[in-house]
């Protein structure tokens, strides 16, 4: 088991070094290129990469080599390589760490005293954009490795790839994987630190990730806006046409996607894991969200709030990990309320996000979605679906007995509880890319994004104590890796 000296090393690093580094990181608006087209000129992505590199080069990791890898016109990556301390050859399998340093945009709704670029510590939580999602990854990974090296625990070769394009769909990553492939070696274990946790009491292991199809659905009826009193009843509303088109995709009463093309059967092992996770989480699976309250309505019982699609914890877990769902995440053509006159607008556009089951091919789903939305347009309106991204999800391979044992022991040592296995609702394109490139690799996908941590939204935070324990857990897993 990991020694008390190694655990003390981890705690000391977090308390006296990493929190300060992450606070500096939060202050930098290193938005992903999808949200900052002028990212190269602004230099924020380059800055957070260089800050991480400078820190990495000062860590007590034996033989560590670290650098920034930059391909022309692409976002930078931090790459590190720590040779084996077990005396193995250069052909031995490696442990590959993954994380990212780019961030989501600001988002409105931050509480008073908090902000996306303002690091604040309250009740053991470090608030600010990006620390939990997942600027902490490179710091936790190298601290876990250093904890082993400083206490004399042998470990395999460890390499790390920290990108700055993940929040934009990792469109630069394939080029870097191809470029770095000879230096990665034969990856036997991939540790991804960009996922979530169901609670802060134990290790959570991500078993699957949903895929994604995203794009813009546009409807145009007129060449210019006209008086609604003169035209309504004759000219169909572009918004009503959008409603008809969206109804082709999902049932608005249930949220179920109508076309079985977008659905997949849940494997038996994932169903069993969902039952276990549901028993652990119970109502917390849906109570974690900031539901709107209705106590401002005079005829509504005080404290009544919006409610979830289901209160069954197992069904909720399967809904967020294996069910296809449609969300409208943006709109164009709609004026602000104070500027909305009695005008029948010429057109409306909605940005759509469809989460897919892990085993559904995203490219084929995207083509199917385009066909369903564009064919036979109501009233002969001009309808167009412009695909922006399509990423297939991931379903983990069977866990090797040695890894299951290592995960069990590491979670009990750090948290006093066995780990729980659960699918996540988001996607990490890098994981499926690596799964294709290294089909025999084992995976440990985990993270610090637990209840209320609110990645991508306001009041994002990292729970410092959980991050410490997770770092120690990762160190233990690396120490127990048998190559």
Q: Could you give a quick summary of the protein structure above?
A:
The protein is α+β, with helices and mostly antiparallel strands and 483 residues long. The protein has helices at 4-26, 39-42, 44-56, 131-150, 173-184, 228-231, 238-249, 268-281, 284-287, 313-322, 362-374, 401-415, 429-437, 464-479, and strands at 65-69, 77-82, 94-100, 120-122, 125-127, 157-163, 187-192, 204-209, 211-220, 226-227, 325-332, 343-344, 347-356, 382-391, 394-395, 420-424, 442-445, 461-463. 35% of the residues lie in helices and 20% in strands.
Provide a descriptive summary of the structure in words.
- The protein is built from 14 helices and 18 strands.
- The protein has helices at residues 4-26, 39-42, 44-56, 131-150, 173-184, 228-231, 238-249, 268-281, 284-287, 313-322, 362-374, 401-415, 429-437, 464-479, and strands at residues 65-69, 77-82, 94-100, 120-122, 125-127, 157-163, 187-192, 204-209, 211-220, 226-227, 325-332, 343-344, 347-356, 382-391, 394-395, 420-424, 442-445, 461-463.
- The model has no long low-confidence stretch (mean pLDDT 95).
- The chain is of the alpha+beta class and 483 residues long.
- α8 (268-281) crosses α10 (313-322) and α12 (401-415) packs antiparallel against α14 (464-479).
- The chain is globular.
- The strands form 5 sheets. The chain has a 6-stranded mixed beta sheet, with helices on both faces.
- The protein starts with a helix and ends with a helix.
The fraction of residues in strands falls at 15-25%
Span between N and C termini?
17 Å
Task: List how many beta strands DSSP finds.
Answer: 18
Question: How much helix is in the residues?
Answer: 25-40%
């Amino acid at each position: 088991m990991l020694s008390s000296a190694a655990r003390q090393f981890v705690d000391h690093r977090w308390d006296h070094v990493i929190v300060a580094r992450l606070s500096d990181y939060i202050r930098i608006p290193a938005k992903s290129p999808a949200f900052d087209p002028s990212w190269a000129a602004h230099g924020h992505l380059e800055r957070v990469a260089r800050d991480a590199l400078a820190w990495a080069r000062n860590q007590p990791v034996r033989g560590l080599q670290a650098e920034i890898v930059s391909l022309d016109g692409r976002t930078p990556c931090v790459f590190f390589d720590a040779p084996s301390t077990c005396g193995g050859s250069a052909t031995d399998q490696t442990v590959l760490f993954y994380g990212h340093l780019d961030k989501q945009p600001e988002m409105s709704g931050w509480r008073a005293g908090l902000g996306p670029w303002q690091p604040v510590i309250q009740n053991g939580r470090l608030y600010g954009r990006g620390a939990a999602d997942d600027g902490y990854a490179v710091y936790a990974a190298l601290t876990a490795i250093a904890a082993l090296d400083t206490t004399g625990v042998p470990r395999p070769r460890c390499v790390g790839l920290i990108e700055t394009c993940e929040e934009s769909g990792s469109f630069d990553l394939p080029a870097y994987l191809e470029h770095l492939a000879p230096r990665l070696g034969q990856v036997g274990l991939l540790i991804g630190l960009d996922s979530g946790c169901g609670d802060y009491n134990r290790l959570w292991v991500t078993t699957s990730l949903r895929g994604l199809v995203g794009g813009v659905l546009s409807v145009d009826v007129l060449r210019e806006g006209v008086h609604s009193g003169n035209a309504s009843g004759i000219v169909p509303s572009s918004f009503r046409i959008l409603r008809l088109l969206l109804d082709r995709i999902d049932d608005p009463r249930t949220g179920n996607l109508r076309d079985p093309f977008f659905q997949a059967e849940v494997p038996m092992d994932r169903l069993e894991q969902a039952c276990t996770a549901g028993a652990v989480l119970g109502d917390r699976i849906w109570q974690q969200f900031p539901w709107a309250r209705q106590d401002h309505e005079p005829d509504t019982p005080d404290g009544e709030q919006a409610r979830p699609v289901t209160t069954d914890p197992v069904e909720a877990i399967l809904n967020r990990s294996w069910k296809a769902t449609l969300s409208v995440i943006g709109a164009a053509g709609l004026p602000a309320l104070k500027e909305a006159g009695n005008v029948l607008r010429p057109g409306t556009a909605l940005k759509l996000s469809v989460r897919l089951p892990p085993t559904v091919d995203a490219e084929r789903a995207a083509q199917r979605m385009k066909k369903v939305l564009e064919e036979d347009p109501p009233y002969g309106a001009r309808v167009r679906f412009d695909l922006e991204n399509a990423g297939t999800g991931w379903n983990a391979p069977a866990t090797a007995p040695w890894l299951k044992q290592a995960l069990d022991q590491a979670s009990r040592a750090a948290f006093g509880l066995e780990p729980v296995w659960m699918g996540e609702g988001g996607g990490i394109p890098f994981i499926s890319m690596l799964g294709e490139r290294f089909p025999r690799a084992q995976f440990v996908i985990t993270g610090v994004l637990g209840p209320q941590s609110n990645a991508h939204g306001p009041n994002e935070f990292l729970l410092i104590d959980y991050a410490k324990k997770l770092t120690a857990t990762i160190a233990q897993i690396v120490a127990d890796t048998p190559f």
